[in-house]
Amino acid sequence: MVFMTIVALVAVLASWGVAQQRVTLRFWMSADPALEQAMDALLQAYMRANPNVTVQRDAFPFNEYHQKLTTAFAAGDPPDVFWMDVRTAAFAAQGSLLVLERFLTPQNKADILESGLIEPVWKGKLYGIPMHEITEGLFVNRTMFEEAGIRIPQRLNEAWTWDEFVSIARRLTKRVGDRTDVWGFGVLRHLSDWPILPIIYQNNGAVLSPDLKKATGYLNSPATVEALRWYQDLFTRHRVIAFDPIPEGFPAGKIAIFQAPSTYRAVLDRRYPEFKYAVVPMFRGKRCAVTAGGWNVSISAKTKHPELAWSLVDWLTRERHQEWVRTSGYLPVRKSLLQRDPQFRQYPWNIFTAQLQSCAIHRPHTPAYNFFFDTFLAIAKDIALGRDVQRVLDDAAARLDTALARGGR
């Protein structure tokens, strides 16, 4: 009896010792000074609540971030917890990500907007939890609009049609001979899939089949061709947008209407506090459509501390979600926060949140996304230069079909 008591005591002490061991979790994110500061506040609070855990944060520039992750996984030394986006499928297909269903309660999942549960899913399994959402709107130079007597819409149901948008953009373009002093339209994420995909979906087009395995018949369909011919006209016929991006063109008064993500508000307010702007909904075609997405938080399949890693993920994405949204400038992905915080039903936030809940479309979450991105970038440039839209899309669809058949390799 005494022997058994001693054994039990030793076991309790051993388990207590394990619980008290200090554990280091490595956390990676995309670099941005403001976001890193906001993240550090959350991580410091987590470590105060979990004194046996140290979180080591690293950040890398966006154009290096995914390659850094790829290299870390190939070397067998990935971070425990990290940001992940539409490339979830590519990393999940390689067995790099931990499936998170066993951690996520039904109540937790039910609180996440449907749009937030698209990109972190691959083959029906969840590999990430969304930190937030992001979508786009049209930022307009208020002074230019007031001088031209153009009304500024403030609700989703007041969004401009394609024809109305073109008319206004042409009206606000200022040209002297061959020199353009003010462009009617500009885009922050110039000539990339993010700002152009909505145009396709607004015309009931598509880029890939519903199972994400085929481009032919979708990327080069009549609806997609028609949409991208309209987009081409902005460059070649109406001449309301420049082929080359204009750095800081919107606050400098060189662009009248500027398509940009919701987080652009924080940039303008911080860098150009005197600049007068307003936010209006994205223009609409046969339907409304706007790209949505954001950073999700994933866990490495190689982590030695899955339970602790999940506690960090849950802390960042659920327990401190309101604080993150407030300090980062991103949109809520939690239904509960959207419901209880009235600011998201008020102008200008209502523009973004209404689109998020009614108009969200997504980049194709396929393991071949990197190839798709590069292909679409080439498509956008060719079309903006005036090349034949049908031929450009036929060629691109054939290339994508090959890459999709190989699983993106």
What does this structure look like?
The protein has 409 residues and is of the alpha/beta class. The protein contains 16 helices and 14 strands. The protein has helices at 2-20, 33-49, 62-74, 88-93, 106-110, 142-148, 162-172, 193-202, 222-236, 264-271, 306-319, 321-328, 335-340, 349-358, 369-384, 389-405, and strands spanning 23-30, 53-60, 81-84, 121-122, 125-126, 129-130, 136-141, 174-176, 179-187, 255-261, 277-280, 290-291, 296-299, 360-361. It has a five-stranded mixed beta sheet with strand order 2-1-3-13-6. Helix 2 packs antiparallel against helix 12 (321-328) and helix 8 crosses helix 9. It is globular. Residues 1-19 have low confidence and may be disordered.
List the helices and strands and how they pair.
Elements lengths: L1 H19 L2 E8 L2 H17 L3 E8 L1 H13 L6 E4 L3 H6 L12 H5 L10 E2 L2 E2 L2 E2 L5 E6 H7 L13 H11 L1 E3 L2 E9 L5 H10 L19 H15 L18 E7 L2 H8 L5 E4 L9 E2 L4 E4 L6 H14 L1 H8 L6 H6 L8 H10 L1 E2 L7 H16 L4 H17 L4
Parallel strand pairs: 1-2, 1-3, 9-10, 12-14
Antiparallel strand pairs: 3-13, 4-5, 6-13, 7-10, 7-11, 8-9
Helix pairs in contact: 2-12, 8-9, 15-16
In DSSP terms, counting alpha (H) and pi (I) runs of 4 or more, how many helices?
16
Number of E-type strands: 14
The structural class is alpha/beta
Q: Which strand-content bin applies to the residues? A: 15-25%
Question: Secondary-structure element order, as H and E?
Answer: HEHEHEHHEEEEHHEEHHEHEEEHHHHEHH
Using the alpha-carbon principal axes, give the shape.
globular
Cα end-to-end separation: 63 Å
Mean pLDDT: 94
Please state the oligomeric state of the protein chains shown.
Answer: single chain
Low-confidence stretches are 1-19
Roughly what percent helix? Answer: 40-55%
Q: Strand count, sense and closure of the main sheet? A: 5 strands, mixed
Strand order of the largest sheet: 2-1-3-13-6
Radius of gyration: 24 Å
